Amino acid sequence: MSITDDPAVSVRFVVTIDGIELGSFNTCEGLGCEVVLEQREEGGNNGHVWQLPTRLKYSTVKLSRPLTRDTEKVAKWFASMTTGFSRKTAHIEARTGDGEMVARWGLLEVVPVRWTGPTFNPESPRVAIETIEIAHHGYVTEA
């Protein structure tokens, strides 16, 4: 297998919320879920403690990228929260450098949590990075 055939090289993450594309992001952290367990001790059974699954807990997803013209789309989405909002469905697609989709995740009932803009400091010039953080209530199962 050559390097160009490896789908993990140069991955970018394209985010779409109810059909509105927010653009490509360089990093994506937090995709996952956790089963919350409740421990129960059974009287007379000292050999173990029962681990009972109760619910799923989803972590927030953080996406980062250098500032682009798509930053305006993110700002509009966050600003729309001040006039009320409805929970939306989001899709995150992992794509190779040539645009081929490697994987796709659908997130249910997305809510924006935080937008962090770049730090501008003339003493240490760096690429201006923005980060968005979104919460969700589960994954979409697609056929």
Automatic annotation (TrEMBL):
Q: Which domain of life is it from?
A: Bacteria
One family name in Pfam for this protein: Phage_T4_gp19
Gene Ontology molecular function, alphabetical: structural molecule activity
State the signal peptide span. Answer: none
Q: What is this protein called?
A: Phage tail-like protein
Q: Which organism is it from?
A: Allostreptomyces psammosilenae
Q: What is the lineage of its organism?
A: Bacteria, Bacillati, Actinomycetota, Actinomycetes, Kitasatosporales
